[in-house]
């Protein structure tokens, strides 16, 4: 894909539809795009490179967009290899090109590129500093921890374009026409979820700018009603739920815990729960489960006991939630145990380490299979979670 965002700014990024797992962990059924842009003014600036996997295609896009011109600057917003993968290649082709980045990003360069002399090849920029390209200036804003510490964003006040690094990105290659929000939400909570406070600071910083186009490092260029996207980012980074429904996540070995999860879903429905989503943590995508945990205001976790602990798919899920700063939700616990139930204790201990969770005190215990005698406790849990 090669298209103009404005007459002076061109998209030169690439789609990757062959990658099995993004960051070696996230499924990407519709691939991913690594975005890169070119600004053609009196001076020419490349805005980030792409993953090394897609070097050839990106180089072709860059050369075509340059149309014989020589780039002066490579602006590096983020040093993660899915964007910075071709820095060494570009430096070797253009001996006068300078890297423009934060001091922290410049310090990281030798970590990723050995045996390259960066002396005299970099320009470190600070908060609000400007770089003139001729008829326009680029202004830089520090955005530490929007995803990594060295991140910055860039504003072009002439074309009113904001280059936002990973912020506002989504899974999904640009060759797929799909809804922004669901894959942007799964992307946000799994990539940036831990960094709500830095994302809030970033949103505050850009709030006074007149922006027409948001150019992230993944996913589509956003134009039109930008409030729509910014409002989602505001909600997500404040850790506010989007739905009053209940998310039920279960980890079941032989089906007894699964049957219990389905039963409580039935009771919740009878009790008027607005929306219920159930996930099998052994089989369903864990990044979607993380997204759903944040999406809903209430969650019930149900797991089998295992080796005096909790069945590992649940352990893994709760560990993910802890990493992503899961907080401010109402949570109920169901455990299953055939001889010495331990899952409830472990889940509660893990949940207690998360911030501002309202954990329902009484854990429902099932012995191997759900029986009519368990219904009273499940009904009490359903009442408590919906309160
Ligand atoms: Fe797309 Fe944090 O890199």
Walkthrough of the structure:
- By secondary structure, this protein is of the alpha/beta class.
- It has 2 domains: 4-237, 4-Layer Sandwich (Metallo-beta-lactamase, Chain A); 243-386, Flavodoxin domain (Rossmann fold), CATH 3.40.50.360.
- The chain contains 12 helices and 24 strands.
- The protein has helices at 55-66, 81-84, 87-93, 103-112, 180-192, 196-206, 226-237, 256-270, 286-295, 312-323, 343-352, 375-386; strands at residues 3-6, 9-11, 14-16, 21-22, 26-27, 32-34, 37-40, 44-47, 73-75, 98-101, 122-124, 130-132, 137-142, 152-156, 161-163, 213-215, 222-223, 243-251, 276-280, 296-306, 309-310, 330-336, 358-359, 364-366.
- The strands form 5 sheets. A 7-stranded mixed β-sheet has the order 1-2-7-8-9-10-11.
- Helix 5 (180-192) crosses helix 9 (286-295).
- The structure holds MU-OXO-diiron.
- MU-OXO-diiron binds next to helix 2.
Features of the shown structure:
7-stranded mixed β-sheet; 33% helix; Rossmann fold; 24 strands; 387 residues; Metallo-beta-lactamase, Chain A; 12 helices; alpha/beta; binds MU-OXO-diiron; single chain
Query: Major sheet: order of its strands?
Result: 1-2-7-8-9-10-11
**Mean pLDDT over all positions:** 97
Output the CATH topology of the largest domain.
Answer: Metallo-beta-lactamase, Chain A
Number of helices: 12
What's the end-to-end separation, in Å? 51 Å
Number of strands: 24
Counting copies of identical and different chains, the oligomeric state is single chain
CATH architecture of the largest domain: 4-Layer Sandwich
Cofactors, ions and other ligands in the entry: MU-OXO-diiron
**pLDDT < 50 stretches:** none
Based on CA atoms alone, the radius of gyration comes out at 24 Å
CATH H-level superfamily of the largest domain: Ribonuclease Z/Hydroxyacylglutathione hydrolase-like
Largest sheet: 7 strands, mixed
Strand portion: 15-25%
